[in-house]
Amino acid sequence: MRAYYEQGKERDRLAGPKGSLEFARTKEIIQRRLPAAPAVVADIGGGPGRYSIWLAELGYTVQHRDLMDLHIRQLQAIGHPAIHSASGDARDVDLPDASVDAVLLLGPLYHLPERADRIQTLHEARRISRPVSPIFIAAISRWAPRLDGVLQERLYEHNPEFLSLLTDVEHDGTLPPVVPNGFLGYTHRPTDLADEIAEAGLHLDDLVGVEGLPLSAADMQARAGDTTAWNVLLNAARVIERVPELLGVSPHLIATAATG
């Protein structure tokens, strides 16, 4: 994981058409339940801080934590006074009990192949949250490697071995790197994510698909330059976001949970 993120790719990942769709949809999903500013939001595993910056610009105080020193330096270089960034592990957060009004977990569960670690991360989010605070939990869909990686990105053209990994990934959820220093992570079935949230003592308020059906890179690029086409894409994602049969189609899922 460290080798992948030390390449610095995460800082601009949400800037392209594909990332812009994820970013736009994630923001609107969060804003449905986010308490009004000013409030304190913990962005745990927040990477280089794209969501922390967005929240700070809306008037929130943000406690940003990430394992990667590079991400912390990138965020601290911006110098926003409402963002407090430090090194931190999502399984053992250095924040007091009941000290924040909302928690973002938009990455940690991607990188925890052991269920016990994922449950511990959810327990920590619950611990640092004030009563009834929303906790936003992102997960990679179990079928993202096939639908997003193979059909959309055609990763097999440069990495033929990727195709041979799909059966195992879809069976146990673990996505190994296919190139040196490549991405590795864990993928969720929607029902498994809901079960983990319940086991951590949280109440699941909502579970939605983020992007909808993955499209080709060329199609995404064309739509990004056309306001009407872009809005059609956003609206399609909204319409199908809670359809049970289609939840796993989106590359990302977001669960909104609460402490009680």
The third-level CATH topology is Rossmann fold
- Give the CA-based shape: globular
Number of helices: 10
Q: What is the level-2 CATH architecture name?
A: 3-Layer(aba) Sandwich
Oligomer: single chain
Structural class by secondary-structure content: alpha/beta
Reading off the top of the CATH hierarchy, the class is best stated as Alpha Beta
The total domain count is 1
How is the main sheet built? 9 strands, mixed
CATH H-level superfamily? Vaccinia Virus protein VP39
pLDDT < 50 stretches: none
Strand percent estimate: 15-25%
Rounded Rg = 18 Å
Mean pLDDT: 93
Number of strands: 9
The amount of helix comes to: 25-40%
Instruction: Report the order of strands and helices.
Output: HHEHEHEEHEHHEEHEHHE
Protein name: Methyltransferase domain-containing protein
InterPro entries: Methyltransf_25, SAM-dependent_MTases_sf
Highlighted features:
260 residues, Rossmann fold, 10 helices, nine-stranded mixed beta sheet, 9 strands
Summarize the structure.
This protein is 39% helix and 18% strand. It is of the alpha/beta class.
